[in-house]
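Please review this one:
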Amino acid sequence: MGLRESPFSSQALAALNCLAQGMLFPGFWAVNLVLDLQETTAERKRHRRGWCQCCCAYTWRVLAGLAGSVLLLLSLPVAVLGLLLWLPVQAARRPFAYQHVVGLVPTKAWALQQRQTFTFVSANLCLLPSGLAKFSNLGQTLQRAAYAARELAPAPWGPASTRTSLVPPRHRAASGYGVTLCTPLQPGGQPRPWDSVVVEVPEDDGSGGLGHGDLEGRRGAEEHGNVEERGNVEERGNVEEHFPADADFLCLQEVFDPGAAALLRRQLGCSFEHIVYDVGAYGLHSCCGGFKLLNSGLFLASRYPVLAAQYHCYPNGAREDALSAKGLLSVQVLLGSVQGRRIVGYLSCTHLQAPARDAEVRNAQLTLGLHWMQLFRDATEERGDVVAFDVYCGDLNFDNCSQGDQMNQTHRIFEDYWDPCRVGPGQDQPWAIGTLLNSLKLYEEPVSSPERLKRTLEQEAGRRSYLAGPVLPDGRPDPAARGPWRGRRLDYILYREHLGPVALRTEVEAVSVVTQLAARSDHLPVVLRLAVGPALP
């Protein structure tokens, strides 16, 4: 759970890792070059515009293929030596790296008698090496990464800074963004990190407010309030063109390419003080179920201090997913303090088994994830902690409308966590729509820009044409899907509430899908805004 920046315990190991990667790079580059020769639908359309363009494109592909093949053969001896050096080094690697940028705007005190809002973004960016991304009809990984980074964290002086957020901007009189609190305990009895944030709270007046009053009475009042609130959520879902400018937490999936991850870190580091990246295990690991060529693809950015982080690898990855270290990343963040107790939040991000027919694999991964999240809370939660939120999000690779996903739709995770977009197994809220696009139509004009994609998805005919549809148990499209057609909703942000020494009420302010990544990802990002405040008396 340590939050040291390097995933290696010594500079010597880090240097050996760099050397091994350097020896592997020529072979990797050659393979990626050959795979990158396959064309996206946009490239094919562009090359068919004229005989000359088609001939030039074909000649370039032949020459590049020959050059890549020759380079691969020449680099094989060095790559083998690099692999023999790389494998044992990975056994000593911690499963994530951490970036802490000092000097951002500090947070203001949060008084628990006032409501505080938290905005979560979950997005599958499909940032694989370009050759692999082509299998999803996406290329130009580094260019797409630079665009996503710019839109997720716009510079305050840039033109994007004038855009509107998910809902009207919240007032910062009693709230704010992250602070530099993740410093270790100093010798000589200096304060712990959370002691530098003080939050005032009124004394318990005996009315069951914020003190240690009647927990059962507050539980009943809170549940009553939740019923009312959940009944109103259906009015709060919409489609937005832009990411919220005031997001507090970013949970990204499929950030596999190292260059893309570096671009994201540089840009997001201007707005998010704490970033956990390069998450996963490489090489041979018995707990991960075999050889891992790619990491988990998970990437988490937070404006609030990260107190602890933990990663677990799913041991049951199958087929092509077995080459990546898909798993669960859980973090504990510091939001403030009240009467000497920490105010913390829990956030878990994951990416489950992808093939549609692997419902049993996903079910096992969901069960493991629930177990790991509870272990993480047990290990990190201190007596008296006030838990403001517990959020679980990511690309779960199943939807709530397909016959083929019925096993996953009834998993007990939906008993512990609440999905604001869902009414029950097989039934979504009337406003909920799918988040997986038809990859073969990514570049068609009606979905070629954020504005066009938004207009298209607001119409049922557009959703039918450009969203991926429900599937059967074997993964084939379901031509007889019943009910309103919404498409496959694979991307989730779930949450649950907790009672403790201070009872808090959680309210959903807004739920959205975002079209900002039109033609740059085959997934629609999802956004959830939660408001946390005192429970009803």
Notes: The radius of gyration is 24 Å. Confidence is low (pLDDT under 50) at residues 156-231. DSSP finds twelve helices and 17 strands in the chain.
